[in-house]
Structure formats: C-alpha cells, structure tokens
Amino acid sequence: MLNVTDLRLQRGGKAVLHGIDLQVPPGEVTALLGANGAGKSSTVMAIGGVLPLAGGRIEVEGHALHGQRPERVRALGVAVVPEGHRVLGELSVLDNLRAAATALPAAGVADAVERVLGVFPELRVKLALPARSLSGGQKQMVCIAQALIGKPRYLAIDELSLGLAPAVVKRLVEVVQKVAREGVGVLLIEQFTTVALAVSSRAYVLERGRMAFAGSSEELRRRPEILHSSYLATA
C-alpha cells in the first residue's frame, strides 16, 4: 500500500499541508478532491519526490519515499502524471515514450513502448509527429503512457480531465479503470467530482491543506454537503 502519514509541506515559506494522512491500496482508484489551492497538487508532487517535506512520512510497501529523488521514487514503483499535459514538445511522440523508458534495460525499451501503445493505440499514427502538434487529449495520453511505461505499482494522476472534451475524458477514465483492474493503485485528482466518485472506491477531501473527509466514495456521494463546504464544483 502507498501510505502518506502526517504529511506537512511548505511552499514559499508558507504551510500548505498541515499533517494529512491517506492510503492508496493496490488495485483500486482512490480520489483526492478539494478546491483550487486546497493542496492536492502539492500532495502529488511530494509523493513524486519533487517537493521536500516539512514533516511526515511517505512509504510504499515498506520503502520510504520521502527524501528520495524523483527517479528513485519511480524505481520504487510510483509514477506521477503532473497537471498540464506536459510533453517534450520538440521531440516526436515516439521519442517522448523512449525518453520515459531510460531506466529500463535497452533491450526492453521497444517492448515497453509497444505495451503502452496497446493501451493507447490512437498514438500509433502520431509516433513520428512532434509532441507539440498533438491535441490536449493526445498529449494527456502520452503523459499517461510515459507513466505506465515503467510498469508502476502505483500511479498518481493530477487533474486527469482538465481542459479536455467529454469523449476524451471518457476514454481516459476507461484506461484508469483498466489499470486499476490490473492491480495498480491509482490516486486520482479530478475536477469533476461525479467522475472521480464514480470510478473510485475511497475518497479524501482536502480543505485549506487539512483533511476534511476520509471514507468511501459511496459515503461521500451520500453527503454532498462536505463537497459544498469545501468549495468543490459538483458538475
């Protein structure tokens, strides 16, 4: 299990997380919800080794992630898809995928690329194109494929659907569900709470850097006042 315990974080000298706890079990989707500025992205960046902790622990299956560099976090089986569909724009789609596979043995890169193209066959016809030429949805597919190429045991996705068309969101949600069914633990940050709660088993709600709710997604669906009080859109 991916465990976050008493996580405290500062950015620019200001406390943004005040001792939060959460767990991501394998084979399930766990939703992390909250208004803009609640601390969701900071949580994901801390898990990914991008931000240093002010206190607390992050562990995956008994291994400490806190204090580790991002490449070590990935080597321990945790991959992060940051917000914003960030690709290497001047490189081809194929080279973006290859770049994400640099930690793999050279002999296994082609097979790894082929495996993630099986997840996103839409990208096959785009392999030679510069990644900057892709649509937002296609860039998000590349980002998720990059995260999956190392066969992570846990996957954190920050704002899966941001700025994307409903048909693309539906396609990405299907991939997230498939990944979870195959045993990967998924931490999902999603602006559309109905989408997040429909695909997740467990949910957490952050409010101003503190945990406002921790429980089942079904319970949170029955208690919409929690979302309203945390300034969440319930679209």
Describe this structure in words.
The protein has 235 residues and is α/β, with parallel strands linked by helices. It contains nine helices and ten strands. The strands form two sheets. A six-stranded mixed β-sheet has the order 6-7-8-3-9-10, sandwiched between helices.
Percentage of residues assigned to helices: 25-40%
Q: SSE order in H/E notation?
A: EEEHEEHEHHHEHEHEEHH
Shape: globular
Radius of gyration: 17 Å
Work out the helix count.
Answer: 9
Name the strands of the widest sheet in spatial order: 6-7-8-3-9-10
What is the rounded distance between the termini?
Answer: 30 Å
Strand and helix layout:
Elements: E1 2-11, E2 14-24, E3 29-34, H1 40-47, E4 55-60, E5 63-64, H2 70-75, E6 78-81, H3 93-100, H4 109-119, H5 136-148, E7 154-158, H6 166-181, E8 185-189, H7 193-199, E9 202-207, E10 210-216, H8 217-222, H9 224-229
Parallel strand pairs: 3-8, 3-9, 6-7, 7-8
Antiparallel strand pairs: 1-2, 1-4, 4-5, 9-10
Helix pairs in contact: 3-5
Summary, kept brief:
With 235 residues, the protein is α/β, with parallel strands linked by helices. The protein has helices at 40-47, 70-75, 93-100, 109-119, 136-148, 166-181, 193-199, 217-222, 224-229; strands spanning 2-11, 14-24, 29-34, 55-60, 63-64, 78-81, 154-158, 185-189, 202-207, 210-216. Strand 7, helix 6 (166-181) and strand 8 (185-189) form a beta-alpha-beta unit.
